[in-house]
Amino acid sequence: MKFTQRVQQLPPYLFVEISRRIAAKRAEGKRVVTFGIGDPDLATPDPVLEELKEASHRRPNHRYPETEGLPEFRQAVAGWYSDRFGVELDPATEVMSLIGAKEGIGHIALGLLEPGDIALQPDPAYPVYNVGTLFSGAEPYWLPLTEEGGWLPDLDAIPDDVARKAQVLWLNYPNNPTGAIAELDYFERAVDFCRKHDIALLHDACYTEVAFDGYRPVSALQVPGAKDVCLEFHSLSKSYNMTGWRIGMAVGNADLVRALFLVKSNLDSGVSQAVQQMGIRAMETSQEEIDERNAHYQARRDKVIEALRGLGITMEPPKASLYVWAPVPEGFTSASFATAVLDDLDMVVTPGTGYGKYGEGYIRLSLTLSDEDLEEGVRRLQSWKVPTPQ
Ligand SMILES: Cc1ncc(COP(=O)(O)O)c(C=O)c1O
Predict the structure, then answer these.
(1) CATH number of the domain within which 18 lies
(2) pLDDT digits (tens, 9 = 90+) for 257-310
(3) Rounded to a whole number, what is the largest CA-CA distance in the chain?
(4) Which residue of 39, 99, 108, 176 sits with most ligand 1 atoms within 8 Å of its CB, as the best mutation to test the pocket?
């Protein structure tokens, strides 16, 4: 059987390789503690689960959903955006349901990119932006994220001839993997840049509800006029511990929503209506409950940072996201340090290079493991004597 170039050129999906390594360790009888994938260990809120029980008995839910989502789901998303960000959306044309943000992020490329086009993409980044680019035959142009640059792409450094061929600019704040945030003034510059060059601003805002120390992340759509160019991807996965239910939304520019609709309506049949009804219930979760959940992650963040400090690894605590992005000690690479952690401590951390070459020199630790595993991981780090780099 012959596989296409399209799939042959893909790097192995990062967490597939990590899962393989964990399985090998476990087969040796080891207790592996994993700070790898960002998949909340905390339960979906009870009222959301109750909604599923009831929704499963509603006969209309037994049939195909519409691609764009239930009108009441889209209305709830518009209401949520208005309350949370002060952004007004037309539920009929500016909102669409997704089978998780990942699905929409991958599919939008098929509506906007073709061979000869350029996609402006951060490095390091969530790998799916580039998968969409590769599948559509377009070329990525990498925008380095560096500590000195505040982990924000330098838009002024993009050459004019590149900007002319670019169709999309991907941004993601709060950011995976760096935990960085962007403020409204940065999104203002991004909107100006995209408007000037007729580029779609695709903002992945999956982590806006996971924030610490009282910080409230912004939406790119808060920039006046952002809807001229911007489509924002959101997810209920991290906001409400719902990764397993697969629900998210794309909101913003009506033409971009339509492009996504045209792709999706030909490839999938939308989100299960019962799951959309869970989503509606989830978006009614009070801010107090979200704050309580975030306090839980914040306590984990502080413990991990403290343990790393004991190894001489220091960094600014992230204000948002589920990740600690830590520099590796001198003499190590991302990969050699992650390997030393795995070999010596039976612990998984993700090498920064898994997110792009500019991730070199860093590892990512996810805060989504159980408290028990986190305590065990912290204990192992505290008692570790970092080996001399090879
Ligand atoms: C930056 C980013 N975007 C999107 C997603 C996917 O979210 P969803 O579960 O809604 O598909 C993830 C998941 O880890 C992510 O880190």
Answers:
(1) 3.90.1150.10
(2) 999 999 999 999 999 999 999 999 999 999 999 999 999 999 999 999 999 999
(3) 64
(4) 176
Atom of ligand 1 nearest to the CA of 176: 1
Distance 334 CA to ligand 1 centre (A): 23
pTM for the model: 0.96
What does residue 142 show for φ and ψ, rounded to 5 degrees? Answer: -85, 135
Of 28-37, 61-70, 146-155, 264-273, the one with minimum mean pLDDT is 28-37
C-beta of 126 in contact with ligand 1 (< 6 A): yes
Last residue of one domain, picked from the residues 258, 282, 306: 282
Q: Which residues span the domain enclosing 175? A: 46-282
Whether 237 lines ligand 1, by a CB cut-off of 6 Å, is yes
Q: Can you tell me which atom of ligand 1 is nearest the CA of 103?
A: 11
- Please, which residues have CB within 8 angstroms of residue 147's CB and are 6 or more apart in sequence? none
Tokens found for residue 168: 């999309």
Number of domains in the chain: 2
253 and 368 together in one domain: no
- Give, in order, the Cα–Cα distances in Å from 34 to each of 52, 293, 345: 30, 20, 11
Q: What is the DSSP string of 333-346?
A: -HHHHHHHHHHHH-
Mean pLDDT of the chain: 95
101 CB within 6 A, ligand 1: yes
Span 69-124, pLDDT tens digits: 999 999 999 999 999 999 999 999 999 999 999 999 999 999 999 999 999 999 99
31: left (phi over 0), alpha (psi -120 to 50) or beta: beta
From the CA of 310, how far away is ligand 1's center (Å)?
Answer: 31
Radius of gyration, alpha carbons of the chain: 21
Write the CATH number for 129.
3.40.640.10
382 CA → ligand 1 middle, Å = 31
How many angstroms separate the alpha carbon of residue 322 from the centre of ligand 1? 11
Query: Residue 172 CA: which ligand 1 atom is closest?
Result: 1
Angle between helix axes 287-310 and 371-382 (nearest 10 degrees) is 20
Q: Do 70 and 180 fall into the same domain? A: yes
